[in-house]
Amino acid sequence: MSEADPTTEQDVQGVEMDLSESTILIVDDNPQNLELLQAYLEELPCTILTANDGVEALDVVGQQTIDLILLDVMMPRMSGFEVCKKLKSSPGTRTIPIIMVTALTEIGDIERGVESGTDDFLSKPIKKLELVTRVKSLLRVRHLKRELDRTLAYLENIDEDGDDAKSQ
Q1: What would the mean pLDDT of 108-114 be, rounded to a whole number?
Q2: What global pTM score does this model have?
Q3: Contacts of residue 151, Cβ cutoff 8 Å, sequence gap at least 6
């Protein structure tokens, strides 16, 4: 039996996904929360970036390819709700999965998160197993979406080539 590659994860169908090419952005104004989330995710072979507030997060997203965002809700300068809404309203960033990390538990806060476009929620205090499981799941979705986009682009290219051949 061969040893598994530590940079890959297998989904339910046994399809491997290379996590080493994934980048996660953690956004929180509390340094202890940033450190804790980084420590919990260190077992994943992903690149982990951090931002201290929403404005900095938008700057990072503008400069890097991000595959998943862990986003605190209550931050100075720009709330997680505002960041999420901005990212989800932009064609270039709307498909980035966002997990809102929050101590807020009121139904109105949850509704506001959903309205701003979040893909999932994690309640503080964070449980490591729950965090890692949700991160892997949303990275898998992101990976599969990229594969689908590549396949559709390939098929569209074949169709265009076929149409060109018919018209000649």
Answers
A1: 84
A2: 0.82
A3: none
